[in-house]
């Protein structure tokens, strides 16, 4: 795959190095002589020293106040909002807007969460519960306000209070900006998992980074994606608590020397030191007092201001170190399933890992338990390899700071970590150049070498004289320069490795990790199929459907026990229920039609079949195949008589998704979609028979509008490339059907709902290698349908045909790595089957209800139960406070 550098903030950032980086040993300029002395000035210049004082006196009123729940009536809520508006936000009835109403209400409800967050933490401390830490460089949280109101069961009360203030709840909810600290599925999974941890009363937290700029905002200008920074922290953020008292020093660069005092340890000298500070993001549990937490780290900068350089007139020098530190938590890398090996990314990962491991150890120490108990008190899950350096970091701290021997430390490490693999795409595998690792993290490189040495000695004992095996399995790849393979480090340092859907877990055992199965045996490798939170992905985004499910189940207990939604199946023949089921879908389609009008200016008919593909734009996800089939459909409609055209099922094809800023082909696919949309939507012959829409800036809150409105959604990755997919689950839970390939969680969805309910097509995962080989060396020409589509593009109908040539090249012949031309004929047949069924409304509604009823497995609560039981060995306990 080819990627071209693009001129945006990220590519310039990644060239960046801190001012101190090149010469960490440069002596600092001597402080200027101070002419005034005295303790007041000393405090002023050097900051307060010593610890703030903690009173031993437990004031009973204070204890009472924080341990009691606030009254839940409307009057109390309204008063709390007005108090916040008039004091904290300095607003009067004359200048309050809907943004202020949002701020007042959001801060009011977060103050309720605050008490419960503290209560939950104290409770788990008091019972000395084993805790799980979900380490993830991404948390795609989206909005929190609605989620919090629903979790606390206070949405009616807040809605009434908002109404009394003169605002509509929908408008106020829309004032919240998404917390978009993630790219796509992996980050959203992390957010669903912490939601499930909280709702199911597990003692678990998420750990991540607090990026100042989250996922870029996508604008579409002349059909092209243009990236704008996501300044999500411009407004006050009610959902984070700064914790300046919780911060840790993190070192970079420098050199390593044998410790004089510690016989096993090394000291890390001449390092550049940064400081990471905690921000806590409460995660409300639905229908439980338990409130979880995501602790996000931000790099502190203010103390790095160089007053001496400032005084000598060197203004940019005065802030150089601040800028360097700031960079570490400035920007989320916008790559999904792609690794680009940049130095700044390595530093981000290490800052995250080091602060997290230090914090976990600090909490463990308050339990008073011995080190031998560590893995009975702590489980750490690595969400992909991004936090895999945590393995080396814990080993380093145990040896260098705690004075342990290698074996004792390593035994603790490998009982603590577990690793989730998310992809087999080679371009996504994280590797760090060894010279770069050695420069930035000299001690960790030494530890990784030792881990590898002991591991290879173990392999050599099991399989003597197999030099090929040793070369294949080594954590250090013998390329030039050498590369450290982070997935291998993660496997060697973990007690379990899991894939995210059964087919994916099987594939990694048979392919990329097969050598490790030989060494460790098969039991280290397990499957935990992904899931999504029914709180957000049904109850919150589709209240209309939620009330039907509540009616079928008898109460709302399905929200935390989603398999109860199977009760829906009993209503599949109930005429009245079926009618209301269909009306809900119509309502959601009308809402999406309005959203499309507002965001794209395109009118679509809510009577059409809504055919939706929304996800990151990627060659392996094959949005390209989708838009090529749209061109085919357009040609077919053009060739029909007006009468015949009227008899076709009218269709709205919806796309949304971001392309990584440096991913040239993905961006070109967006351009092709928009160019096709321009032609089709303005063709008077076509009218409502076909509309094509690209909704800009796909994000969690857009997904909440789009997903409930689908009739059919597409999950059409080349078999074997999509590890799981999670939006497939969200769509079916909302009564949409699936058009998909035999890949990822599609396979298990089919098992659950029945293969007669789903539209599947395409080659199978185990056939892909042969087809790829064939494409490369003996490709047959594309079939006539695909050829006609290429001809249309080449005719210039969608603008300069040369521009789209690269897309034609990668959808046939030797360039067709993702088998677009191979799957195209069966894809068109599947589309025909969808259309046939849609004409039979009764049959369609039956499938819609049956599918939704059979999705119990795909709640992330079930995923978390699986992890808790098979990997973490932790128990849920309802907090009692
Ligand atoms: C669920 C979700 C995804 C993942 O979608 P896939 O189709 O599984 O790749 C990505 N982005 C957002 C905003 C989501 O909500």
From TrEMBL:
EC number per UniProt: 2.4.1.1
Subcellular locations according to the entry: Cytoplasm
Origin superkingdom: Eukaryota
Main location: cytoplasm
InterPro entries according to UniProt: Glycg_phsphrylas, Glyco_trans_35, Pyridoxal_P_attach_site
Keywords per UniProt: Allosteric enzyme, Carbohydrate metabolism, Cytoplasm, Glycosyltransferase, Pyridoxal phosphate, Transferase
Transmembrane feature ranges: none
GO molecular function, one term: pyridoxal phosphate binding
GO biological process terms, semicolon-separated: glycogen catabolic process
Keyword Disulfide bond: no
In-chain residues carrying the UniProt-annotated modification N6-(pyridoxal phosphate)lysine: 730
Reaction catalyzed: [(1->4)-alpha-D-glucosyl](n) + phosphate = [(1->4)-alpha-D-glucosyl](n-1) + alpha-D-glucose 1-phosphate
Family (UniProt): Belongs to the glycogen phosphorylase family.
Record protein name field: Alpha-1,4 glucan phosphorylase
Organism: Smittium culicis
């Amino acid at each position: 795959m080819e990627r071209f550098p693009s001129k945006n903030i990220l590519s310039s950032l990644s060239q960046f190095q801190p001012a101190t980086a090149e010469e960490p040993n440069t002596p600092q300029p001597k402080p200027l002589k101070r002419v005034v002395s005295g303790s007041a000035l000393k405090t002023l210049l050097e900051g307060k020293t010593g610890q703030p004082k903690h009173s031993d006196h437990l004031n009973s009123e204070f204890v009472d106040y924080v341990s009691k729940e606030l009254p839940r009536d409307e009057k109390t809520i309204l008063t709390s909002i007005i108090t916040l508006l008039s004091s904290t936000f300095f607003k009067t009835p004359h200048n309050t807007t809907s943004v202020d109403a949002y701020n007042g209400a959001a801060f009011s409800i977060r103050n309720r969460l605050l008490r419960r967050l503290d209560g939950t933490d104290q409770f788990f401390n008091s019972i000395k519960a084993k805790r799980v830490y979900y380490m993830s460089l991404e948390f795609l949280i989206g909005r929190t306000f609605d989620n919090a109101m629903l979790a606390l069961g206070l949405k009616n009360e807040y809605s009434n209070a908002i109404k009394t203030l003169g605002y509509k709840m929908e408008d106020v909810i829309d004032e919240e900006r998404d917390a978009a600290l993630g790219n796509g599925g992996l980050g959203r999974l992390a957010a669903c998992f912490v939601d499930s941890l909280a709702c199911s009363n597990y003692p678990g937290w998420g750990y991540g980074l607090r990026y100042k700029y989250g996922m870029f905002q996508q604008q579409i200008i002349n059909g092209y994606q243009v990236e704008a920074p996501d300044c999500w922290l411009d407004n006050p953020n009610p959902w984070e608590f700064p914790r300046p008292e919780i911060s840790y020093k993190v070192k970079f660069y420098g050199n390593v020397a044998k410790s004089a005092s510690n016989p096993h340890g090394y000291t890390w000298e001449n390092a550049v030191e940064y400081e990471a500070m905690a921000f806590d993001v409460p995660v409300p549990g639905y229908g439980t007092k338990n409130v979880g937490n995501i602790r996000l780290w931000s790099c502190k900068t203010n103390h790095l201001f160089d007053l001496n350089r400032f005084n000598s007139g060197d203004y940019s020098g005065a802030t150089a170190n601040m800028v360097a530190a700031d960079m570490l938590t400035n920007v989320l890398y916008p790559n999904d399933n792609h690794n680009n090996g940049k130095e700044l990314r390595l530093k981000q990962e290490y800052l995250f890992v080091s602060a997290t491991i230090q914090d976990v150890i600090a909490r463990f120490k308050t339990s008073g338990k011995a080190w031998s108990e560590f893995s009975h008190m702590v489980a750490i899950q690595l969400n992909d390899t991004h936090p895999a350096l945590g393995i080396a970091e814990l080993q380093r701290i145990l040896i260098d700071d705690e004075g342990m021997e290698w074996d004792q430390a390593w035994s603790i490490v490998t009982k603590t970590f577990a690793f989730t693999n998310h992809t087999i795409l080679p371009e996504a595998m994280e590797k760090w150049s060894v010279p770069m690792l050695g420069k930035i993290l000299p001690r960790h490189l030494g530890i990784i070498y030792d881990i590898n040495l002991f591991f290879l000695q173990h392999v050599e004992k099991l399989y003597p004289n197999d030099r090929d095996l040793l070369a294949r399995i080594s954590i250090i790849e013998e390329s030039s320069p050498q590369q450290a393979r982070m997935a291998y480090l993660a496997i060697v340092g973990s007690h379990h490795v899991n894939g995210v859907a059964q087919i994916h877990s099987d594939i990694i055992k048979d392919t990329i990790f097969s050598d490790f199965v030989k060494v460790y045996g098969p039991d280290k490798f397990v499957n935990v199929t992904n899931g999504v939170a029914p709180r957000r992905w049904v109850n919150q985004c589709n209240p209309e459907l939620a009330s039907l499910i509540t009616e079928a189940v008898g109460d709302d207990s399905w929200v935390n026990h989603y398999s109860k939604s199977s009760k829906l199946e009993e209503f599949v023949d109930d005429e009245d229920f079926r009618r209301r089921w269909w009306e809900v879908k119509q309502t959601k389609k009308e809402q999406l039609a309005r959203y499309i009008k507002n965001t794209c200016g395109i009118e679509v008919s809510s009577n059409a079949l809504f055919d939706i593909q929304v996800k990151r734009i990627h060659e392996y996800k094959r949005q390209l195949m989708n838009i090529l089939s749209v061109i085919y459909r357009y040609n077919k409609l053009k060739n029909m008589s007006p009468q015949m055209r009227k008899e076709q099922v009218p269709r709205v094809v919806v796309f949304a998704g971001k392309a990584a800023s440096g991913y040239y082909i993905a961006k070109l696919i967006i351009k092709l979609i928009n160019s096709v949309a321009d032609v089709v939507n303005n063709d008077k012959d076509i009218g409502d028979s076909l509309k094509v829409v690209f909704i800009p800036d796909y994000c969690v809150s857009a997904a909440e509008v789009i997903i409930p409105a689908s009739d059919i959604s597409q999950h059409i990755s080349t078999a074997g490339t999509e590890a799981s997919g999670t939006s497939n689950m969200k769509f079916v839970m909302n009564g949409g059907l699936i058009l998909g390939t035999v890949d990822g969680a599609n396979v298990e969805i089919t098992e659950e709902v029945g293969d007669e309910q789903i539209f599947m097509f395409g080659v199978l995962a185990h056939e892909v290698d042969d087809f790829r080989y064939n494409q490369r060396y003996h490709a047959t020409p594309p079939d006539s349908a695909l050829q006609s589509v290429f001809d249309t593009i080449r005719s210039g109908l969608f603008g300069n045909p040369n521009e789209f040539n690269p897309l034609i090249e990668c959808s046939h012949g030797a360039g067709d790595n993702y088998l677009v031309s191979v799957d195209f004929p069966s894809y068109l047949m599947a589309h025909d089957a969808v259309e046939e069924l849609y004409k039979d409304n009764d049959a369609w509604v039956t499938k819609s209800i049956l599918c939704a009823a059979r999705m119990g497995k795909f709640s992330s609560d079930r995923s978390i139960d699986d992890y808790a039981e098979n990997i973490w060995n932790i128990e849920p306990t309802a907090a009692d406070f």
